[in-house]
Amino acid sequence: MHKVDAYIRNSVLMAMLLVLLVLAGLDFLFTVFDELGGTNERYQTGDALLYVLLTFPRHVYDLLPMTALMGALIGLSVLASSNELVVMQTAGIKTQRIVWAVMKPAILVMLAGLIIGEYIAPPLDLKAEVNKTIASSDEVVLSRFGNWQRDGDDFLHFNAMEPDGILHGVSIYSFNEEQELTANTVAERALYENNGWVLDNVRRTEFVQSDDGLKSVLAILETYRWDVDISPELLQLMIVDSYTLAISDLYSYAQRFADQEQDATEYFLAFWEKVMQPLSTTVLVLVAISFIFGPLREATMGSRVFTAVSFGLLFIILQKLFRTVTLVYHFNPFVAVLIPIIFSAGLGLYLLRKAA
After folding, report:
1. Which of 18, 19, 82, 345 could form a disulfide with 71 if both were Cys (CB 3.0 to 4.6 A apart)?
2. Are 292 and 89 in contact (CB under 8 A)?
């Protein structure tokens, strides 16, 4: 029996590797062509190719659920086409044992996804964005169009950020509990030192209530220290796309937004999508198995591949649909991520039970 399990496992694993090679290769080529279309005198071909290489692990991470679905379906299809599955069942091997044998390579795909999504892709994505911005702009910056952040009653805006954490074009607006502006601080740049920001070439205007009414007091300073719980590392995480962050960073950033009473839906949604990806992969593999033992038992290989691609696209469409609904109507992120998974799991279990 162990040899049969190993045979099924190896067949499915090889199919998954082949599918990943094909999908990743096509994705790489399309990404290269797309990125080369944005080259110019500053952002040249070498820069574009480096950007594609650095972001490639994230693309592989995104392809893993589809890889598991198509690989499981194709691997089992090969066994079904040669009547090997029929022989196994005739010999008394239960469907549950075959399902478990197929799930073993799927577990490897899940582990690879966790490693890539948590430790490999996020730092490379950040490096890719930094390199691209450096190559395509006149200033060495991470954000070319400015960025707003909030800490308590203070609102921070900066025009640009260097990769080493130096801010340029800094403006800080301070408010009191009555939401009245109490101070406006403008600095040429800011450097993070000893858990705080040291601002250079500062113009600080304080608004003071006196007997004669509201007065403004202007102070021109060489340096000014601003103690705030915002580090350069956190600012870098805030600038990049939430879906490129690691799970731990997503959760800490979402909690920070929630503590600041700001909308953290986007980050909680990305967090739950990444946390639930192993479950999504499991469910898609279950659906692939149910297709082989159910409606696609006598189908051709082409029909099975077409069905796998179609269902994978349907699953992605459902995910995007509920993602949009969540962002627009503030639907519960956990429930929004779970609904496509429950739908797919229900379909897979129904088809397996019907085929039994």
Report:
1. 19
2. no
The pTM of the full predicted model, rounded to 2 decimals, is 0.81
Query: What residues pair up with 214 in beta bridges, in sequence order?
Result: 209
What is the structure's pLDDT at 140? Answer: 45
Domain for residue 176, yes or no?
yes
Which residues constitute the domain of residue 158? 153-193+196-230
Q: What stretch of H or E contains 301? A: helix 301-329
pLDDT score recorded for residue 115: 94
Q: Which residue has the tokens 């490999």?
A: 120
Does 10 share its domain with 89? yes
Tokens 């949009």, residue located: 324
Measured CA angle at 202 (ends 199, 205), to 5 deg: 120
| Distance, CA of 256 to CA of 45 (rounded, Å) | 39
Mean pLDDT of 172-182: 87
Do 121 and 48 share a domain, yes or no?
yes
Alpha carbon distance 168, 351 (integer Å): 59
Angle of helix 333-355 relative to helix 301-329, nearest 10 degrees, comes to 150
Flag whether 238 is in a domain. no
Burial zone of 119 (CB within 10 Å; 0-12 exposed, 13-18 middle, 19+ buried):
exposed
What is the C-alpha end-to-end distance of the chain, expressed in Å?
Answer: 21
- List pLDDT tens digits, range 272-323: 999 999 999 999 999 998 888 877 677 777 787 788 888 999 999 999 999 9
Same structural domain, 34 and 115: yes
- What confidence score (pLDDT) does residue 137 get? 59
Top pLDDT among 30 and 305 is at 30
CA 124 to chain centre: 13
